[in-house]
Specification:
Order of helices and strands: HHHHEHEHEHHEHEHH
CATH topology of the largest domain: Rossmann fold
Strand content: 5-15%
Structural class: alpha/beta
Strand order of the largest sheet: 2-1-3-4-5
CATH class of the largest domain: Alpha Beta
Number of strands: 5
Helix content: 55-70%
Radius of gyration: 30 Å
Largest sheet: 5 strands, parallel
Number of domains: 2
């Protein structure tokens, strides 16, 4: 059965049941061909549906599928009443399986391959937001769906989802992982776990140093040869090339990029002076 047509099959079975009930005991004739035909159509379609999803050892499936449906209209009406409880239970199991498939499909499609995962301290969220809005979105033309960042609703964890699972899934699926390095970052256990997960998943993070972070004090966390200072225009230009190469997007023109970096740096100065 085509998985995309499961709900259609469920709807068909329910419609066939309604059709049978409309003919049940029609004119109180035990030889009503319409009643017999509609019962058999419903029972056959439901059996196919149930056998697709439910173990053959299920007692309710056996009761339903193995029912003798060779009688007249009165006999079949009695059979319907005797297997109706099993039918409702089986239909409930199928609908539950369908909901699970839809949830799994949604999980796979939503954020399945974020271009960028941003590892950061929640205490630095204002700086990170400026970076996302001005550099990633305006500068590179990315969308919320391209970015995994836990601090913001549009790019973060869906309600009810597991945060550790979200982090692992999105680091693994991303094209590149950015570590927004600061004193807050180094003192955060969550950030240390994220950067460790990135290394373990062979996603060595590209390190971006936030303002007022001291290279010497950050020690082993920082590879100074590969780190970019977020408040340096030359570093931002170099970062632009690295990001575009990593995520496979065109390098924006200077006419487009330069105003974005200028706005970002001005906003960053304003934030530091507040």
């Amino acid at each position: 059965m085509n998985k995309m047509n499961i709900q259609e099959h469920i709807n068909k079975v329910e419609e066939l049941e309604k059709n049978y009930l409309a003919h049940k005991y029609i004119r109180m004739d035990e030889n009503s061909l319409e009643s017999i035909r509609t019962f058999q159509e419903w029972h056959s379609a439901a059996s196919v549906l149930f056998c697709e999803f439910i173990s053959e050892d299920d007692k309710f499936l056996k009761t339903f599928v193995e029912a003798d449906i060779s009688g007249n209209a009165y006999v079949l009406a009695s059979i319907y009443d005797s297997i109706h409880t099993s039918y409702k239970i089986l239909m409930s199991k199928v609908e539950k399986a369908q909901r699970q498939k839809l949830n799994d499909s949604s999980t796979e499609s939503h954020g399945d391959s974020p271009l960028i995962f941003i590892s950061h301290s929640s205490k630095d969220r204002e700086i990170v937001k400026l970076f996302i809005d001005n550099i990633l979105k305006k500068g590179l033309g990315l969308t919320d769906e391209d970015i995994a960042c836990t601090s913001f609703e549009a790019t973060g964890v869906n309600p009810g989802d597991s945060i550790p699972a979200y982090i692992k899934h999105n680091i693994k699926g991303s094209k590149i992982c950015l570590a927004m390095v600061s004193q807050n970052y180094k003192s955060s256990e969550v950030c240390m776990n994220e950067v460790g997960a990135a290394w373990a998943l062979d996603k060595a993070p590209l390190q971006i140093v936030l303002p007022n972070a001291d290279f010497c004090e950050l020690g082993w966390l920082l590879n100074t040869d590969k780190a970019s200072k977020i408040d340096d225009v030359d570093c931002l230009d170099s970062l632009e090339e690295k990001l575009c190469a990593s995520i496979g997007v065109p390098v924006p023109t200077a006419k487009h990029w330069n105003p974005c970096t200028r706005d970002f740096l001005n906003s960053l100065k304003t934030l530091k002076n507040e």
